[in-house]
Amino acid sequence: MALKLLAYATLLFFGMMIFLMIKEPYTIDVMDHNGNLIPEVELFNAQNYQIKEGLVESIVRAERVARYQDFDKLYVINAGHKTQEGLRGVLTSDEGMLQDNIMHFKTNSHYYRDDGVSLDGEDIFYDLKKEILSSEKPFIFSQKQSRSHGLSFVYQMKEGTISATNIHSFIQQVGKK
């Protein structure tokens, strides 16, 4: 009896092994019925901290993060950082995408720094490694009493320097009539 039971169990085991070898592997659907990508992971009220030399250098907050295989989509973003001078800068955007260490802020993007520097634009890219903010779309750059409009820019976040093309600037002097 025990020998018969062992023979049936062995036969069942080999049958299951053959079934598993022939069966296609289980995969998660990456597209829904409308053809939209389905995220692998979704996070709500997410925060990402970048820590260097024992201090928090930047914090990125998002109301929703959808993580796909090759990129992340972020919604309602608030990204803060510190400059070399210790000034705090905040970049906000309605929607963004992170891929290959490049953060792409798509719509309604605003950058503001404690000393009054601000930047408004669309399609802004931030290179996380080089710490450079850039765009090939029209923008508005303000600093204290001056305001500049241009078609594209490259802004060195740590140094606080901007290079722009085709700009028109309006500069007011305080106290002069």
Report helical residue fraction. Answer: 10-25%
Shape: elongated
CATH architecture call: Sandwich
Biggest pleated sheet: 14 strands, antiparallel
* SSE series: HEEEEEEEEEEEEEE
Strand content: over 45%
| Number of helices, counting only DSSP H or I runs of 4 residues or more | 1
Query: Which consecutive residue ranges, at least 5 long each, have pLDDT under 50?
Result: none
Number of domains: 1
Give the CATH superfamily: Lipopolysaccharide (LPS) transport protein A like domain
Mean pLDDT reading: 84
**What is the CATH topology assignment?**
lipopolysaccharide transport protein A fold
Number of strands: 14
Distance between the termini: 110 Å
CATH class: Mainly Beta
For the structure shown, list the relevant keywords.
177 residues; elongated; 14-stranded antiparallel sheet; 1 helix; single chain; 14 strands; mainly beta; lipopolysaccharide transport protein A fold
Write the layout of secondary structure elements.
Layout: H1 2-22, E1 41-52, E2 55-67, E3 72-82, E4 88-99, E5 102-107, E6 109-113, E7 118-121, E8 124-127, E9 132-135, E10 139-143, E11 146-150, E12 152-156, E13 161-165, E14 168-171
Antiparallel strand pairs: 1-2, 2-3, 3-4, 4-5, 4-6, 5-8, 6-7, 7-10, 8-9, 9-12, 10-11, 11-14, 12-13
Describe the structure.
Helix content is 12%, strand content 54%. The chain has a single domain, classed as Sandwich (lipopolysaccharide transport protein A fold), CATH 2.60.450. The radius of gyration is 26 Å and the shape is elongated. By secondary structure, it is mainly β. The chain starts with a helix and ends in a 6-residue tail after the last strand. It contains one helix and 14 strands, in the order αββββββββββββββ.
